[in-house]
Amino acid sequence: MISVRTAMLSEPGGREAKEVGCGWWNQEAHLCAVLADGAGGHQGGQVASRLAVRALLARFSQTPAATAAELAALVRETNRAVLDGRASSPGLAEMYTTIVCLSADLRQGTISWAHCGDSRLYWFRDGRLVERTRDHSLVQALVDAGVLEEEQLRTHPRRSTLQSALGMQEGELTLAAQPGSRPIEGANVFLLCSDGVWEHLSDATLEDLLGRAGSPDYWLAAIGSSIAQAVRPDATHDNYTALAVWLTGALDD
Fold first, then answer.
1. Strands, sheet with 128-132, edge to edge from the N-terminal-most edge strand
2. Could you tell me which of 100, 112, 81 has the C-alpha nearest to residue 183?
3. What is the pLDDT of residues 8-58, one digit of tens each?
């Protein structure tokens, strides 16, 4: 059977409230991991991120989403839950949250993911980076258009300006899901993280730290130490959260 190991890193940084929520749901045949990074109003971001995580995991546990299309539909349902939360209180009228989620069908040996905003999923196979999500942000759009260089994603003053997030009306919402379901082959490692992680650590650094880690806990500890060193001069740096999922083993015959 495919074995599942998970670990979480979450630090408040220099902010008064930690606006990132994450969690996972696992049974013998299915796994769902999700991370959300909120924004908007007094504690609105914290409410939005936690609401999104709870809503998505609750729906997944009732009807596991095995394909990318099913997972994308689940994210849209989660957006409606965030919109309902905004309508419940005037103080939450401007709350939004990013979201990134991973689904694994452990019986069929396939993975799917979907995301909205600039929280990311990184996929490593046999220690090498295979793929990562692309942000729904102004700076990512400028990079895609050839106006900016890829390296400027981490340093541009408007890197946090999002083009899509949960809390937008359905007609305005943009989300992405990888086409089809991917097979689980070899040792697969996934990192779901907020922008407070990736803006300080390059793809190559994440891969290098993974190569020296023997477990998801050790890997996240190394990531945390590297971020702490990078942000030491800045007492107001963003909070950051990461969720690691390691899938190893083989399918039953």
1. 2-11, 240-249, 188-193, 120-125, 128-132
2. 112
3. 999 876 555 668 899 999 998 999 999 999 987 667 899 999 999 999 999
